[in-house]
UniProtKB/TrEMBL annotation:
Residues 1-29, 41-85 are annotated as: Disordered. This is Steroid receptor RNA activator 1. Coiled coil: none annotated. One of its GO terms (molecular function) is transcription coactivator activity. Functional RNA which acts as a transcriptional coactivator that selectively enhances steroid receptor-mediated transactivation ligand-independently through a mechanism involving the modulating N-terminal domain (AF-1) of steroid receptors. Also mediates transcriptional coactivation of steroid receptors ligand-dependently through the steroid-binding domain (AF-2). Enhances cellular proliferation and differentiation and promotes apoptosis in vivo. May play a role in tumorigenesis. It comes from Cyprinus carpio (Common carp). Belongs to the SRA1 family. SRA1 RNA exists in a ribonucleoprotein complex containing NCOA1. The RNA also forms a complex with PUS1 and RARG in the nucleus. Interacts with AR. GO terms for cellular component: cytoplasm; nucleus; ribonucleoprotein complex.
Amino acid sequence: MSDRFVKPGNQEHGWNDPPQFSYGLQKDSGGLKRNLLNKRVHAPQFTDSGSDMQSPAVAKLTPPRGMNPPPMDSSTQPSVCPKTPSDGKIVVELQTEPSIEDVQEPLYGALNVCRHTVKKQICDDVERPLKLFEDMWRSGKLSPLVKHRMHRLSQDLKSKKWDAADEIHRGLMVDHVAEVSQWMVGVKRLIAEARSLNPEQVISCTHPGS
């Protein structure tokens, strides 16, 4: 304890009596300050109307009692942009369904040319899926989109656009696997075999009757 908080000696006590501390000196000098942990928190005050007084911070977050948010107009619905094809040609193509003959002619034309150089077993393995493809087409088990994409594939095969035909084949396997998985393996093999033909043989592929 600092000596400045000790009172001057009392003449009535002996020399070895403990010193007497001055509370007034400690209070005036700010010594021995402690945090008051038992400070009472005041309860919310009530007005005459019975509503509790809120602090400014709470009042900004909480809307006044009795005021509801404005109702939404039921006639105003979220606008949804209609999905329209980016190319009007797609709509025309879907309205006009191609014939199975137009699709099968280039496919079988390429297969007949492949028979001159490709093993018979491989060609037979290609022909069986093509027949299944035709049966599913005629029995109505193929969607219009699959039919149109197969028509484009056959035309690309006829025009020797191997990459384009192979791209359509991969797209059909991804987008319509349930419809094409049973026979698309034959189309894939046909594209690979036709790609490997000599240029002279490819020319006859576009004219199977020659």
